[in-house]
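Materials and Methods. Structural model of Cytochrome P450. The 471-residue sequence of Cytochrome P450 from Aquisalinus flavus was retrieved and submitted for structure prediction as follows.
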Amino acid sequence: MTSASAAMSAASPLYIPPMPPRTTARKPTPVTQFLGTLRYFKVMARNPLEIWSDVFYREPVAALRFLGRDFLVVHDPAMIRHVFVTNQENYRFSYVRQAVLKPFLRDGLVVAEGETWKRARKALTPVFTPRHVKGFGAIMEEVADARARELAVRAGQTVSMTDEMLSLTLDILLACLFSHDADFDAPLFSRRINRLMDVSGMPHPFDLVQAPDWVPRVGRTAAARLVNDMRAQVGALAAARRRRMAAGEAVPEDFLTLLLQAGTREDAPLSDDEIIDNLLTFMAAGHETTARTLTWAFFILSQTPDALARVLHEVDGLPDAADPAGLAEHMPYTNAVVKEVMRLYPAAAQLSRQAIAADEVGGRQIAPGTEVVTSTWVLHRHEALWDNPDAFEPDRFLGARGETIPRYAWLPFGLGPRVCIGASFAMQEILVVLARFLGQFTLSSVGPAPMPIMRITLQPSTPVPMRIEPR
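The predicted structure was written out as tokens:
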């Protein structure tokens, strides 16, 4: 970019993407505490992001007692490092998180703990080596190009970017997992996983108060049926692939093959159930989070013409047959856009752990059972950590300015030993889709601005309708 265009871009007013209103914290009294409890359940049902009042965006730590439980809300990078990295063995996942995810993912990498997690992580790490992730680049391009051809037929029409990105990222993931295996009914699986997200995307009020498991939860029975159907569908495919491998037949080097091979390691074997658990984990976590980031990216770029022009300059300057694994080097500003979108709209909007034994963080005593909460939504907008925290400003991730970002202030993929194992896969996929789509289409937002709402992932409140036109 020329110095003149850079100066023009710097002079442009900063864009503030949609966000829910923030409340002002009030001094607690018996009345406000009672009303606060009622408000808590109301807000949790509507949008948990609204729980965070203005004080949390300024203070590094806050201690709370709610419904008889102790909470420590931490947004200081050094304290975050202590809980989630340095002393992570003293903390387990929170009850509410596990109540939402474990019935579906069981012992998948996202929810497993202790020795089960250590063994699975050891077995699965080789599946996500740079060589393997790079090898999936061509599949990502192939699926993205196929979807682009479908959208080209609909030029001039309005499409739901939410639906398109959820469908596209699932198609990409299934192609990388199963190499378009004819025995796998992808449309059926897609309907099942989307339905599961609809019926189990929020913690049940009984989970919030840690009611016993025998207390019925509305929707839990329907979710269990969907989970069983999905497990049977994935398990049948894994069993068929295993038989082919045992017979010495040629099989594709896709995720399924790599996972089955990894599961046979003597030092970290995986049972058949654990293989199914992790396949479902990759499908659930690996497509929805990426889809949400892409949807927000397309929307924000439609609102920021200067940023879009800089992205298009990089897209149009890509060399022929550019290696998908090298797109971040060819498109540094676009890569910064993705990081900024992840800062403003982290798909995983909250990290939480529960103390096993007593601990001390930043001079504060933590009793056993205390739940330590870090909202990545708040952390990524904290006034002590970011300039213009609510503004879309990708340049903050570039050059010397990017080097000043505190290490534990930007956590879209988590941190420490439990950092997302598929982070490089997701970043590669996002850049591939942006390059393929923006190289061919102009996308214009035609509906009301979507509001971020927190479910299992942070998602837009609308279908994000956009009109698609050829460039």
